[in-house]
Amino acid sequence: MKRLSARNASGYMFLTPWLLGFFLLAIGPILVSLYLSFTRYDMVGDPRWVGFDNYVYMFTRDRRFWKALEVTFHYVIFAVPLRLIMALGVAMLLDKGLKTIGLYRAIFYLPSLLGASIAIAILWRQLFAIDGVVNQVLAVFGIEGIGWITNPSTSIYTLVVLAIWQFGAPMLIFLAGLRGIPRDLYEAADIDGTSAFRKFYAITLPMLAPVIFFNLVLQIIEAFKVFSPAFIISNGTGGPADSMLVYTVYLFNEAFKFFRMGYASGLAWVLLVIIGTFTAIAFATSKYWVHYENERD
Amino acid sequence: MAISRRKFLATTGGVALAAGLPSLPALAQDRSIRHFWWGNPDRDRRTFDVIEVFEKNHEGISVSGETIGWGDYWTKMATQTAGRNMADLVQMDYRFLFEYVRRGALQELDPFIGNGLDLSNFDKGPLSGGMVDGKLYALNIGSNSQVFVYNTKVFEDAGITTDVINWTWDDFANVCKTITEKTGGKIKGSDDCSVVLETCECWIRQNGRTFFGEEGDVIATPEDIAGYWQFWLDLRNAGALREKDKSLDANLPMSDVGVVSGDTAISNFWSNQIVGVQALMQDTVGAAMVPHKPDGEPGQFIKPSMFMSLSRDSKDPEAAIMYMNDWINDPEETKILGLERGIPANPEVRKALAPDFTPAEKVSVDYFNAIQDKVGPLPPPEPKGAGEVRDAFIRAGTDVVLGNAEPQQAAELFIDDAQAIIDRAR
Questions:
Q1: Is residue B382 part of a domain?
Q2: Domain co-membership, B153 together with B217
Q3: Does A154 touch chain B (CB under 8 A)?
Q4: Which residues of A touch B258 (CB under 8 A)?
Q5: Which residues of chain B lie closer than 8 angstroms to A60, CB-CB?
Q6: Residue A282 belongs to a domain with what CATH number?
Q7: Whether B297 and B308 share a structural domain
Q8: In this structure, is residue A215 part of a structural domain?
Q9: Would you call A241 and B404 a contact, using CB atoms and an 8 Å cutoff?
Q10: Which chain A residue has the Cα nearest residue B248?
Q11: Does B183 share its domain with B279?
Q12: pLDDT tens digits for range B222-246
């Protein structure tokens, strides 16, 4: 035992820089924000302890909070499955063993590299503007376009389309997963004369389940945290009639527009609980549909 | 023309800033101050020219200018206030002045009066607009009032001869319908002002109330607001307003506003924007008052359009006050600034400017003179949370324009919300 801890000491020594960073830059602020969520704090004066007031207001009186939740769920429900389907589809195409796979992989990954950038969000705003590219293309076919972004019933879908377009990261992971499926399974199926759909359903999906699960969890977390595209495209306002008011944009406005740092901290913690809950649900259900290679059934 | 190193650096610096690059590191000078304003291309050009003049007159002080559009200005300002790195001099708006003073972000200017800041020539009225609790926190750098800018050519072609200084809401509606009809719907009568709180405020004042009372409570009634929305809704149903999609953004860039883009004949603006609007248009602009109610109270008021304030974070208040003083008194600088930020409160300056007015400047000064006896008093200062109430108004108005809510129920909900926002901000 003694020998062990002595051996570990050097390990901890090497970990020190990282541990310091973790405690000072991550855990510290996280705990401070938890404290702040029970206060009223406008960043100029000192925080004033108000107990559960922020949370009570949030759940009982704050209509925009519920609206933000509604918009965010709407976004998550559409963006996550569609992005995953797109990523898997493209990954399967690339898995066909193209000669120039490297090139295509890079091309398809490009939008995701650019995705977080402000430039793309601004480009998106131009694309879907009333006199933007999308409407000009529609006009060629004689279709009268609408203001996709200024119209509350369509604005959220411009964000969803942007999310689908940025399928690069999950695609790469799917591609790696597909490569890992033993070829002899497919060969056996070919000898039995199995249809392509059946092969996909009976071999690819089950074998890929762990990778799908991994991607699903990551994408859910990411989608709940969506910020910059919504912020840029709606000019920071959350769009017409709050139709693009995703949760983080609301949080940002509460914090940096109205200086309710205490309230915004509370919002952040509620978001943490929500994301945690959904991740937990994903894990809980996973044992019914995700099987790992090394498991003994 | 010989270009000195200083001048070269100052101009290139100006160009780089105008291009939206982060400000250059201060040159090897002992003192530097920052000036932050919300702007438009024309205003930015003038301001950078003024900075150049100031640096020429004050060797050893460098000024870095920072500018951004109105919509983002307050976000950035808020962030800088929180981060305790506000620019020395910030442009202030009447709507936000009280909020910033109450948060302790601005310095009192009284100690500098006669002590670096020469206000001996200043009109008293505009000066009082920058006072909070009897102390001066913001120097008026221009006055303005609400205005409906119209396209004179479209009016002429449609045969409109209405007196646009004294017109009523009914006259306005008829003008809108006539223009839409005469142009076959190609040009609509007007932009929809359902989400414009400033115009709604005029409507409320005509009913004999203000939006906020002396104590900062919401004293406008749901009927005031509903009546206002109903007016626009009726006009929309008559087909005389711009399409819905372009009527929901209260912060449209100037070039996208109806009268500028040619979609409408009339749009709402502030009077100091007339020059900027004309710069973007082929046809000559005219200036109309916000329509009146027969037997109603005056709706419009003359408000300080912009202030310059000294921030709490200023490292060199002395240099900052020098800059502020030159801004309102220096003949060369005031000439460059012209009327772009509003009508200057220094009669000497106004006299000096008059001979060189462009037609658009003349329109705005004539308008300003014409409305003098038709405006009411400045409304009481707005309470903390007023900016947020404006956002709520835009949201509620949007619902009405889109037909998601009836004016009456939307108005009741909005008044409720507005009061809740004010209560919460206390």
A1: yes
A2: yes
A3: no
A4: none
A5: none
A6: 1.10.3720.10
A7: no
A8: yes
A9: yes
A10: A240
A11: yes
A12: 999 999 999 999 999 999 999 887 8
- Spatial neighbors of B168 by CB under 8 A, at least 6 apart, are B291, B292, B293, B294
Whether B15 maps to a domain, the answer reads no
Number of domains in chain B: 2
* pLDDT top residue among B375 and A80: A80
DSSP tag of B250: T
Looking at the fold, whether B175 and B60 belong to one and the same domain comes out as no
> pLDDT confidence of A258, banded at 50, 70, 90?
confident
Interatomic CA distance for residues A253 and A245, integer angstroms: 10
Q: Which residues of B touch A43 (CB under 8 A)?
A: 81-82
- Alpha helix locations (H) across A95-154? 101-115, 118-127, 133-140
Smallest Cβ distance to B246: which of A44, A61, A130?
A: A130
- pLDDT category of residue A294 using cuts at 50, 70 and 90: low
Please, what is the average pLDDT of chain A?
88
Strands B143-144 and B139-140: unpaired
**Domain containing residue B74:** 31-142+304-370
Mean model confidence pLDDT for chain B: 88
Instruction: Note the pTM of the prediction, 2 decimals.
Output: 0.74
Residues B264-275 have pLDDT tens digits of: 999 999 988 898
Number of domains in chain A: 1
pLDDT on residue A115: 60
> Which residue range(s) make up the domain with A108?
60-287
Are B71 and A235 within 8 A, CB to CB? yes
- Tell whether A194 lies on the interface with B, counting CB pairs under 8 A: no
Q: Is the confidence at residue A69, as pLDDT, over 50?
A: yes
A220 located within any domain: yes
Q: Tally Cβ neighbours within 10 Å of residue B341.
A: 24
Reply yes or no on whether the pLDDT at B9 is more than 60. Answer: no
Q: Which of B391, B416, B421 to mutate to test the interface with A (most CBs of A within 10 A)?
A: B391
Determine, yes or no, domain membership for B159. Answer: yes
Interchain CB contact of A242 with B (< 8 Å): yes
Q: Which of B105, B91, B108, B107 is nearest to B36 (CA)?
A: B91
What is the C-alpha to C-alpha distance for residues A145 and B74, in angstroms, rounded to an integer? 33
With CB atoms and an 8 Å threshold, state whether A257 touches B74.
Answer: yes
Q: Are B171 and B312 members of one domain?
A: no
Interface A-B, measured as beta-carbon pairs within 8 A, has a size of: 54
Share of chain A above pLDDT 70, in %: 96
